[in-house]
Amino acid sequence: MRSRNDRIIAGIMLLPSVILILVFVYGFIFQTIRTSMTDWGENLDNPAMALQVEKNFVGLENYRELMTDPMQFEFRTSMVNTFFFTILFVVGCVFVGFMLALLLDMNVKFEGVFRTIFLFPMALSLVVTGTIWRWLLQPEGLNALPNRLFGLEPYTFNWLSSRKRVLEFDWNDVPMYLTYIGLFILAILAFNYFAKRRWRSMGIVAGLGGILVFLYAVGFWENNIWPQLGITNREGTFIPTPEPKGYQVALSGIVIAAIWQMAGYTMAMFLAGIRGISEELREAARVDGCSEFGVYWRIVLPQLTPVAISAVIVLGHISLKIFDLVFAMTGRQNFQTIVPGIMVYGAFDTNRYATASAIAVIMLVLVSLVIVPYLWTQLRSRES
Amino acid sequence: MKRRLSLFLILALFVALVGATNAQEDEDLSGQLEIFSWWAGDEGPALEALIALYNEAYPNVEVINATVTGGSGVNARAVLKTRMLGGDPPDSFQVHAGEELTGTWVVAGRMEDLTFLYEENGWFDAFPQDLIDLLTYDGGIYSVPVNIHRSNVMWYSPAHLEEWGIEAPTSWEQFLTETCPTLQEAGVTPLVVGEAWTVNHLWESVALGVLGADGWNGIWTGETDPMGDDMIAVWDTFGDVLACSNIDEDAAGLSWQQAIDKVLAGEAGFNIMGDWAAGYMVTTLGLEPGEGFGYMPAPDTAGVFMWLSDSFGLPNGIANRDNTIAWLTLLGSVEGQNAFNPLKGSIPARVDAVEAAPELYNAYLQSAAMDWSENTLVGSLVHGAAANERFMGEFGQVVEIFRQAGSLAAANAMSTICIQSGACG
User: Does A330 touch chain B (CB under 8 A)?
Assistant: First the structure.
């Protein structure tokens, strides 16, 4: 009796927050998805701001436009930028943060002071960070320092305004690259199962990979799938002309500012992780004749994997949703450093609500790709 | 005891109510008036002067000054949309006159026709016909223009021109064949541009120069083919002009003020910017028009005035309609326009306002006002007069396509956004 009563009370106590989350999180996600499949703001006959807007269902049309309309190249640049930005930002933060944590772990004097100094950037809002770094990276900023201090030639690298692009590729080849990445993941999985001698799982994964390779080789995607979805033209490519994409060098300044902001946080995570490893373990290693480097490489580092994964998840979802830093550093109509968040704002400003929703949904999917597997593994490990 | 207290309270409330209604009868207008604009910072005092004038006439109206900072309304527009969609329109809001108002708000049926106000106040004679034409949609007029800025102005430093031994070019031909090579030899950037929108701003002066006033207006009526030879010529000239600029160097990091600073410092020869630049140089830098800085119409655009204008309208379904009509009447009056414009650094939209008080305006503004009453008037693209918000928003992409792929691709892209936005007739 007691436990049943408890359960009812617990349910009642939880109800308000469940309802609020259902309405204000999932309800709005649903609303956004629905809007993204209408022609709100795309149909010239229905003014976007009318009191009673007529919204017609158009299916995935807005998504198709974003991926293949030559005029929407800016969105595709923003996807590529997000990809490169995320990789550089996450790797940079983890590397710098880990190094700082190692240094602080060496029993330095005034450790508390240093820790505060390294953590401090995180207390700033991204807009403040962006504004400061924009000033620093202007031609008259840090670049002029060698000249001002030592009379050397000023450095002329355009941190935020370079129009250079490296690692170029054509947007039309993206399905090919995605296929490669898919195969790579399948290969790793298959190898994993092979090592664990789970033959059936390995067989399934290898079979999937084989089918993928075969379909790709006979041009199944180009000839059957993409045209069915209406997202390619007659030549089997997405866009009639080659559309070069690549790492925009102008992103470098933003990456630096972002790492400056978040490296301290990563350091704090690693430091907590390192402190959590018992001193006895390290002592035991030293007694067994392990060098100091070996202690870190063979004892500390392997035990930090969960911390590193958490750091990557936290940083990854920040960088996928980044808006304020880029907005403050390079502004809105900047085709070199555009990111999806700013695209949403721009689409809203030009009354294209359906397109804005579609971009928002794509961002949600990207973030879920990072978050959901993480939550899943977390929940599973907690249960076991 | 309790009962007596409540009786007393009811009595007090009654007296207060009667008093309030009495007060309402005594004065013309009361209640509130919320004015939504992006005139904060440097432009704040000009708006406050208007509000002071309004409060003098209607002391019982509480004016709520709702400003959202951000140049040319980038942030204010987003806030306004949120409020309108949420069913909470401000009593009156600032908006660029022309398509920015018409294409978004008027076609959506959210604005009230102000033709009656124009008739009552005789504004049909006060404002130029070209301006009224661009404010008109489907036979109705939907806003009251407060001020006028000019887009096609070229700025320079007379002292430096003398030093380099050149004269300000009057045609793009002259700029490209004489001015540009001379300055490049002297190690000076011939033409300075800044961040993305200032490049678009340059484009509209180049296009106006190449197409002429009729050709420019033709873009928006469908008479000028966005893929025709004339437009290709515009893009070609634009490319040549950009080749004489700093676009591949530090342009993206410069604000328009920093671009002007380069001209004044002698690092660059010329800059094309709207005449808010005059306000910056006169008020902030303390320079004398004609001496500290020189100005002339952008090459090939003499005799044409490319305007942009801030205006206010009357949204449907607002709480304080009478107060707002009084506000709009004040905005359109000579008195109101002369209170606002000298402080803002713009000229009145009325052609008769400067004559009424010429001493309020500096040399530059007087010459601009003269041009305003005599020149051919065309609307600006970048600043909301000529094209709707969708076209404006996507025009930046056309310029980017031009820089990556050249004239033909740009003309193609422009014809695409013409169709997608419905802005070209």
Answer: yes
User: Distance of alpha carbon A121 from its chain centroid, rounded?
Assistant: 21
Q: How confident is the model at residue A158 (pLDDT cuts 50, 70, 90)?
A: confident
Report the residue of B83, B105, B107 to disrupt the A interface, i.e. the one with the largest count of A CBs within 10 Å.
B107
The CATH architecture one would assign to domain B28-150+307-379 is 3-Layer(aba) Sandwich (3.40)
Contact with chain B for residue A48, Cβ under 8 A: yes
ipTM score assigned to the predicted complex: 0.79
Residues of A in contact with B396 (CB under 8 A): 333, 335
Name every residue whose Cβ is closer than 8 Å to that of residue A69 and which is 6 or more positions away in sequence.
none
Tokens standing for B393? 């928003």
For strands B304-312 and B347-348, give the pairing. unpaired
Q: Which residue of A has its CA nearest to B252?
A: A161
pLDDT exceeds 80 at position A326: yes
Query: Which CATH number covers residue A261?
Result: 1.10.3720
Task: Express each pLDDT in A27-44 by its tens digit.
Answer: 999 999 999 999 998 888
Model pLDDT for residues B98-150, shown as the tens digit of each residue:
999 998 999 988 999 999 999 999 999 999 998 998 889 999 999 999 999 99
User: What angle, rounded to 10 degrees, do the helices at B196-221 and B389-405 form?
Assistant: 110
Q: How do residues A209-239 score in pLDDT, each as one tens digit?
A: 888 888 877 777 667 666 666 666 555 566 7
Residue B211 has pLDDT above 80, yes or no: yes
Closest CA to B336 of B348, B322, B320: B348
List the domain range (segments joined by +) for residue A247: 81-313
Pairing assessment for the beta strands B304-312 and B92-96 based on DSSP bridges: antiparallel
Mean pLDDT of B182-188: 93
Q: How many domains is chain A built from?
A: 1
Contact A49 B251 (CB under 8 A): no
Chain B neighbors of A345, CB-CB under 8 A: 78
CB contact under 8 A, B252 and A161: yes
Measured between CB atoms, does A138 come within 8 Å of chain B?
yes
CB pairs under 8 A between A and B: 85
Contacting residues of A for B74, CB less than 8 Å apart: 332, 349
